[in-house]
Amino acid sequence: MNALSFLVNTVFDLYLMVVIIRIWLQLARADFYNPFSQFVVKATHPIVAPMRRVLPAMGGFDTASVVLALLVVVAKFVVLSLIAGAAISIPTILLVSVVSVFKQAGVLLFWMLILRAILSWVSQGHNPIEMVMGQLTEPLLAPIRRILPPMGGLDLSLLVMMIILNFLNILLSQYVPFWANV
Fold this sequence. Notes:
- The chain has helices at residues 2-28, 35-54, 63-84, 90-122, 128-147, 157-175.
- It is globular and about 55 Å long.
- Helix 2 (35-54) packs across helix 3, helix 4 crosses helix 5 and helix 5 packs across helix 6.
- By secondary structure, the chain is mostly helical.
């Protein structure tokens, strides 16, 4: 039972990360011709395209992708509830789904920052994934760089952003229901 729950959780979380990256790519106006961006678009397009006919974009905000992210989390919790034999409460699952999408976006940002820091030590900057990660994270790091300039050639904005993310995670786990459990 635990192995099946792990597998279901992993598959749904990986696809949720791809959907969140699609939303993020559109918000950051990242390069959609990048091979990594093309992978994200191709992995989500078969589901997002039909949803766009029903849910049009509102002011440049892709409503269909946001609804897909919520549906992925709802499906994950329904499947996990069925595996565990637990009762399914629709309002609880909807609330947990919204919280889970926000938390997963924060976790994704955290790991992108870690990966970006590691790649900055070993890469020459010509990797397509590194370029997209730069386009996605730079709008969040630029304000920190304006306040905290490089010190001795070290860019501490990544560290500051990771500290902010951990602070928000701890703070939200105290005040938002289900935050610590999703």
